[in-house]
Design goal:
Elements lengths: L1 H16 L14 E5 L8 E5 L4 E3 L7 E3 L4 E3 L6 E3 L1 E3 L6 H26 L4 H4 L3 H17 L9 H36 L13 H24 L2 E9 L2 E7 L3 H24 L10 H24 L3 H32 L6 H13 L1
Parallel strand pairs: 7-9
Antiparallel strand pairs: 1-2, 3-4, 5-6, 8-9
GO molecular function, one term: G protein-coupled receptor activity
GO cellular component, one term: plasma membrane
Main location: membrane
Length: 364
């Protein structure tokens, strides 16, 4: 009897293995919900993937649940995980590289400043108002260092400080360049008896240009901060699955006014330097100023489309690059030719050389 029972059991097992399995009874993969097929039995269904940002309902495999705004599904769409927080930090390669470049250029500018202090009584430093040269070098140092304020996690205070600092410092730089250019014109007018501008030399106009131009920008920034100051916000739409911590400029109109005023100063400086580029070379640095303002304008003109076409931390990196490259352009174009003469051709940095040069110019 026992043998017969075992035989019957084996036959039943073989029969069970031959029973066909319905394809419709296969369970759906993770992240897919069941969708009933019209006109078919309840055991027949399609498996549809959950939409982007959704997970499968653990209590009902026929529907998906949307994750909260600050969370994102895992790879299997079973659980909502916190989104990654992104901002340009010192820990990543891009942030540390930009910070190092900023510090290096600041040290280089400080070296030029020290060189000009040491050689303050030489003709090439005294030409075109050495006090304005000192002020421009100090402004460039602050300009390089202000880019560091754009690195790190933004907060309300830093968002206000970094934009205002950037606007005021660069307005100070450009207004100083404008004052230097007008100084060249005034010097030439004082030596030319036929010049119509000779009567304006006594008014010492370049002294008032820097504080007046800088004060206008400061007033614009105060109005901006009072009406709609920049603030930090969490941008969840910039990149999928990432929360971008960035600065909202507050009033875009006032932000555009601040940038527009800086652009106006740069345009005036470029125009005046271009008109004065053919003055006598002994006291003339307007050729270098013209080229430096062309570099400055080119950087910021290309910055606008690049700024508008990037998102996330790349936007901040583009602005830092524009700050560094425009500041470096001013430093290299205006001061490196003078440093070249001071360090490598000191014979050209003497009163005798200038007197001999002036004599040749008069003969011509």
């Amino acid at each position: 009897m026992e043998a017969i029972s075992m035989f019957i059991l084996a036959v039943l097992m073989l029969e069970l293995q031959r029973i066909p399995v319905s394809v419709c009874s296969d369970p759906c993969s993770k992240g897919y919900r069941r969708a009933a097929i019209q006109g078919q039995k309840i055991c027949c269904f399609d498996c549809l993937p959950c939409s982007e940002g959704e997970i499968l309902n653990p209590k009902d495999d026929t529907e998906c649940l949307k994750c909260p705004a600050d969370k994102w599904p895992d790879s299997r769409k079973e659980e909502c995980l916190p989104k990654l927080i992104q901002f340009l930090s010192y820990e990543e390669t891009l942030g540390s590289a930009l910070a190092c470049i900023s510090v290096l250029f600041c040290l280089l500018t400080f070296s030029v400043f020290c060189l000009f202090i040491i050689k303050r009584n030489t003709p090439i430093v005294k030409a075109n108002n050495r006090d304005l040269s000192y002020l421009l070098l100090i402004s460039l140092m602050f300009g390089f260092m202000c880019s560091l304020a754009f690195i790190g996690r933004p907060n309300r205070i830093m968002c206000m400080i970094r934009q205002v600092m950037f606007a005021v410092i660069f307005s100070l730089c450009v207004s100083t360049i404008l004052a230097k250019t007008i100084t060249v014109i005034m010097i030439f007018s004082a030596t030319n008896p036929n010049s119509k501008l000779k009567t304006l030399v006594g008014f010492r106009i370049p002294i008032y240009i820097v504080p007046v131009c800088a004060m206008v920008q400061i007033i614009l920034c105060i109005v901006w901060l009072a009406q709609a100051a920049p603030f930090a916000e969490s941008n969840m739409a910039a990149e999928i699955g990432i929360i971008v911590i960035e600065c909202n400029e507050g009033s875009r109109v006032l932000f555009a006014c601040v940038l527009g005023y800086m652009g106006l100063l740069a345009s005036i400086s470029l125009f005046v330097a271009f008109l004065a580029r053919k003055l006598p070379d002994t006291f003339n640095e307007t050729k270098f100023i013209t080229f430096s303002m062309l570099v400055f304008a080119s950087v910021w003109v290309t910055f606008i489309p690049a700024y508008l076409s990037t998102m996330g931390k790349q936007t901040v990196a583009v602005e830092i690059f524009a700050i560094l490259s425009s500041s470096a352009g001013l430093l290299v174009c205006i001061f490196f030719p003078k440093c070249y003469i001071i360090l490598l051709h000191p014979e050209m940095n003497s009163r005798e050389y200038i007197t001999r040069r002036n004599g040749k110019n008069q003969e011509i």
